[in-house]
Amino acid sequence: MSTPTPSTNPLLRAWYDKETRSIIVQIIAAALILSFFAYIINNAVVNLAAIGKDISFNFLWQNASYDINQHLIEYSSTSNHFTAMIVGLINTLLVAAAGIVLATMLGFMLGVMRLSNNWLTQKIAYVYIEYVRNVPVLLHILLLHGLIINALPRPKGSYNFGDTFFLNNRGFQMPSPEFQSLFWIVGAFVVAGIAFAWWFSRHAQKVQDETGKAYPVAMINIAAIVLLPFAVYFVLGSPIEWDVPALKGFNFKGGIVVRPEFIALWLALSFYTAAFIGEIVRAGIVAINHGQTEAAQALGISNSRTLKLVVIPQALRVIIPPLTSQYLNLAKNSSLALAIGYMDIVATIGGISLNQTGREMECMLIVMAIYLAISLLISTVMNWYNNRIQLVER
Amino acid sequence: MTEQTYAPGTYPDLPPPSDTVGPVHWLKANLFSSPVNSIVTLVAIYLLYLALPSAFNWLLIDATYVGETRKDCAPGGACMAFIGERFNLFVYGFYPAELRWRVNLAAILLVVAGAAVLWDKMPARKHIMKFAMIYPLIGAWLLSGGLFGLEYVGTHLFGGLMLTLTIGVTGIVFSLPLGILLALGRQSKLPIIKYFCIGFIEFIRGVPLITLLFVASTMLSYFLPPGTTFDLLLRVLIMVTLFASAYMAEVIRGGLQALPKGQLEAANSLGLNYSQAMRLIILPQALKISIPGIVNTFIGLYKDSTLVIVIGLLDPLGIGRASVADSAWLGLSTEVYLFVAVFFFISCFGMARYSLYLENKLNTGHKR
User: Fold this and answer.
1) Could you read off the pLDDT of B154-176 as tens digits, one per residue?
2) Can you list the positions of beta strands (E) in B38-79?
3) pTM for the whole thing?
């Protein structure tokens, strides 16, 4: 074998030196990336100048002059585009938050069902998961929306739940609360109850660590947060007036209506994500060594406490990271609201406002920035939670 | 009791105790093992009893499968007649009827090329693999034409199943290599390349696909030289590929991180350079570990191809949505969407099963 002779060419020698080569490669990469961006930005500037447009966010303060059928804050067609954007953002956050809650509950239920020793529930969960996750979420949304619109009765033949709740193809009607002047006392009791529960959980934990004596923490906390305010509520003579919906003519008047678009989007996103969460939960529980359960049983710990104190805390470590990405997916999938006309952030600022003002660049920038912020928020919260439950190794 | 002795190996096999075999035992063990379990079983059976017979009646017994309009359908049953009426639309979109042989030919060739890639015992696989490598070009030429004597067909006529397959196959073929490059870039020791890859991946993963499709359909022409533009479908294909490649990169990064560091060190100590080490040692192992994730990304991409309906392309779901709005077939959304759902279920479930098969085949015994 001959020894390679060192090259005399200085350029080649520089190339064969690892340090120099990495600097050269990076300079070339940086030059390529920068020139690419310079090129497209230059194109954009030239193109915008040619049609006499500029980049400006002033349009946000112009009159939006369109209606949004679901607004949780004050909004009318005389409001400006900025308000429309906030309304859309709230609608996005609302459906995402409601979806995350329902999907988590359903998902944990499905995961446990998949591991059940009951053959029937196991198979039902299996069939559900396989069907739901192999069909696009957009299809689920359209299917559910179609079902609500076409298969539910008209307002006249509504499903009636005790004359207070009604379900029909215009949505779900329910009473809306009107708070009387004394209601703040109930609110104060709830706040005080939460503060007490927070203090009491820490105190009980400390007592248990020191003496081994365990309080029924959950019971006492529920009593403090729920039961006591309820008692106060009735003592004060029920300071909430309920505005009950009633059929007037062809539609319902009064109360709050949960619109079909919201119901369809919320249920479809939750059902879809729950199938994925179910598999994640199952994998998490299966990943826990069976020896852990056996050890707990050998120590005489009851089945439910084994689950609560031994299996679930360890399974959560496996479950949380993929669960986070499912939450992110759900939040991003809520943008499909557009397909059924739920007025979320994409439909308001990225849809009607964009078409009215013709400011594609600014509107899409806003929409993307908002989604990036939501993604960042969810991953920060979940990372914080994940760090908290991680195994502390000594 | 008399002791009977048997020579080794001649002890007669006794039947299992009668209470551990048979359907009754199975019921007892799997459905009625405890009071709680029995209640759960009964509730589940009751719920199934509520749902299944009526769904069965609706879908099969009372359903109408042949007819011209909505009025031909029996009330109270599924109205599947529209499927026969619109079947070609669901498959070919608005592709000119006299040129549909090109779509069919492309589909047959896709099956051949796909079989060579997926089935390792295929006869003459080596040669067909070469064909599979250039299939994307052949497929694109067959579908849109315009070269070598084939009549040009605008991509605005693409639709239905063929559009889904076009988007799905293009995305799958191009997102894997791009994802590998991005994953390697993210692991790179060169900071500029590393941070560019991180920025790209995190940006794409942070925004919904729908916004990227909007950018492709409305804004992309701003970033091109004045006066130029290119085909909408091509723009969509690029966006879908970029989108999938960011997710692919994260899946492959997981595989790369799962490899022990010793593998790269061993490769380096054998004198392999970076590209040799990656090609021969690292990637084959990392890709093998990431197969389930890769196939899941493919399935996700395939399902996400339905989102193109928001920018006006008509895949099967888009055709379905248009059919629902057709006055001749008004109010049939459930039937239409169930039909499309069956189509997606079959293809996605098939992919998932293939991934399981591949996992088992490539499992060379490293699992404990």
Assistant:
1) 777 787 888 888 888 888 889 99
2) none
3) 0.84
The CATH code of the domain at A86-175+256-389 is: 1.10.3720.10
- Note whether A198 and A249 are within 8 A (CB): no
Q: In chain A, positions 326-355, which contact chain B (CB-CB < 8 Å)?
A: 328, 332-333, 335-336, 338-339, 346, 350, 354
Give chain B's end-to-end CA distance (angstroms, integer).
Answer: 46
Rounded CA separation B132/B169 (Å): 12
Query: Domain boundaries in chain A?
Result: 10-50, 86-175+256-389, 182-243
For residue A253, the cross-strand partners are A246
User: According to the model, what pLDDT value does residue A271 have?
Assistant: 94
Per-position DSSP letters for B279-341, written without gaps between them: IIIIHHHHHHHTHHHHHHHHHHHHHHGGGGGGGT-B-HHHHHHHHHH-GGGTT-HHHHHHHHH
Of B191, B336, B341, the CB nearest to A135: B341
Partners of A120 on chain B (C-beta within 8 Å) are 30-31, 40-41, 44-45
Indicate if ipTM > 0.85.
no
State both tokens at B225.
Answer: 């030289």
Q: Give phi and psi for A300, each to the nearest 5.
A: 80, 20
Facing A335 at nearest CB: one of B196, B210, B336: B210
Domain boundaries, chain B: 21-61, 101-152, 160-362
The CATH number of B160-362 is 1.10.3720.10
Q: How far apart are CA B16 and CA A25, in angstroms?
A: 72
